[in-house]
Design brief:
Blueprint (H helix, E strand, L loop, with lengths): L1 H4 L16 H12 L3 H5 L5 E3 L7 E3 L13 E3 L6 E4 L7 E2 L17 E3 L70 E2 L5 E2 L4 H8 L1 H9 L5 E3 L7 E3 L2 H4 L29 H4 L6
Parallel strand pairs: 6-10
Antiparallel strand pairs: 1-2, 3-4, 5-6, 7-8, 9-10
Helix pairs in contact: 4-5
Bound molecules: heme C (HEC) (4 copies).
Length: 278
């Protein structure tokens, strides 16, 4: 379990804003190909993370792109983050319905996909029935009420359950996790959502952020730039750890080293010269 929760720094190329993908990612990949020979000969990194180190791992798979034969991702040799997506949709599933906002009139609704979160969760994958492998009401009894109490489990996820680092004491585990159906998230009205659709839960309390995310001002998408084109949306928990947002809202990503200078150029003085012509 250690490897999943190491507290390495996360890189996020696009904090907010619209799509990162298409040409810009190909641009980054091109720069990576230009690395000096000695770095290239090192054992290539084929396991990397997409947004949160330890919580969004991805394995490089060759030739997933039918047209050009690209791998699904290229991993950075220096930061362990994904550098480039050869197939932005590899391993994704439909995002599903959007809460409250009727997006059916907008073309991007039908073509919105996400990377499922369930395969990334340690406890979800401990047994055949997900969290219910233990939380079946017998092995672990259902909690009697929602009152915060000290629990003797999951310290790797929440160090001290009486000091949950989300909500400044106003919310607790069972405001988000269903008491009797532990495989699901739950909102204050009792609606249950899959771990793959955390935006529905987060959006129920963080309406402003949800609306911004929905509009593409908050979060990240890759894929087609076209209105109505297929896009992969990053869900809230790909960037935010719901159990530690009070300690760190978001772990900043470690930047890549500066790219190599073009062949024949000795330094970047020309670039630094100020407002001169480029
Ligand atoms: C290996 C068994 C096991 C698995 C698998 C497991 N849990 Fe638990 N969990 C426990 C135990 C035991 C407790 C109660 C500890 C106590 O009362 O001191 C607990 C307590 C909790 C609590 C506190 C509320 C309560 O019911 O006591 C939450 C929330 C929770 N687990 C969430 C999850 C989620 C979400 C998953 C799946 C992603 C999961 N657990 C999977 C064993 C497990
Ligand atoms: C604000 C909502 C929220 C609260 C409060 C909350 N959780 Fe969670 N929890 C989530 C979400 C969302 C996930 C899925 C995270 C992801 O996709 O990475 C999760 C995942 C988990 C998991 C599975 C982690 C894994 O890798 O298998 C456990 C265990 C868990 N929570 C326990 C708890 C316990 C115990 C508490 C209370 C002390 C708690 N949670 C409070 C939203 C919450
Ligand atoms: C039940 C309501 C509720 C839910 C559900 C909820 N949050 Fe929160 N969240 C809060 C409260 C309350 C705060 C504390 C706000 C403050 O300190 O002003 C908070 C704080 C935060 C912060 C820190 C904000 C800051 O200003 O520092 C982030 C980030 C955050 N939540 C993300 C999430 C994400 C991601 C989810 C979904 C996994 C989520 N929240 C689900 C109630 C909620
Ligand atoms: C691509 C990554 C990414 C995704 C996806 C994302 N966020 Fe954020 N979020 C950030 C960053 C970066 C910040 C700013 C962190 C800081 O100021 O330290 C932030 C800040 C926040 C805050 C703090 C208050 C604020 O407005 O600055 C909240 C609350 C929040 N996000 C909720 C959400 C919710 C809810 C979702 C899903 C609907 C979501 N985020 C999706 C990256 C993301």
């Amino acid at each position: 379990m250690d490897f999943l929760h190491k507290s390495s720094k996360i890189v996020l190329l696009a904090l907010c804003g619209f799509l990162v993908g298409g040409l810009s990612t190909y641009g980054i990949a091109y720069a990576a190909e230009e690395k000096p020979a000695e770095t290239q000969s090192a054992q290539p990194v084929t396991e990397c993370f997409e947004s949160r180190a330890g919580f969004s791992s991805v394995t490089r798979v060759e030739n997933v792109d039918p047209k050009y034969g690209y791998p699904n991702v290229k991993c950075s040799q220096t930061t362990g983050a994904v550098l480039w997506w050869g197939d932005p949709f590899y391993g994704t599933i439909p995002m599903g319905e959007m809460p409250s906002i009727n997006d059916k009139t907008r073309g991007d609704f039908a073509n919105a996909v996400v990377k499922p979160r369930e395969p990334q969760l340690v406890y979800f994958n401990m047994g055949p029935n997900g969290c219910k492998t233990c939380h079946d009401g017998k092995i672990v009894p259902y909690p009697k009420n929602k009152k915060p109490r000290l629990i003797g489990m999951h310290q790797d996820i929440v160090n001290n359950s009486l000091e949950l680092m989300h909500g400044r004491g106003a919310i607790w585990c069972l405001d988000c996790h269903s008491a009797k159906n532990r495989n699901k998230l739950v909102d204050r009205e009792g609606n249950e959502f899959s771990f793959n659709q955390p935006q529905k839960l987060c959006g129920s309390c963080h309406g402003e952020n949800y609306i911004d995310w929905r509009a593409g001002i908050h979060g990240k998408r890759i894929g087609s730039w076209k209105t109505g084109g297929k896009k992969r949306w990053w869900v809230c928990t790909e960037c935010h750890n719901p159990h530690t947002v009070q300690i760190e809202r978001f772990n900043p990503l470690q930047p890549e080293p500066a790219p190599a200078l073009p062949r024949g150029m000795k330094n970047a003085d020309y670039e630094r010269a100020g407002d001169g012509e480029h």
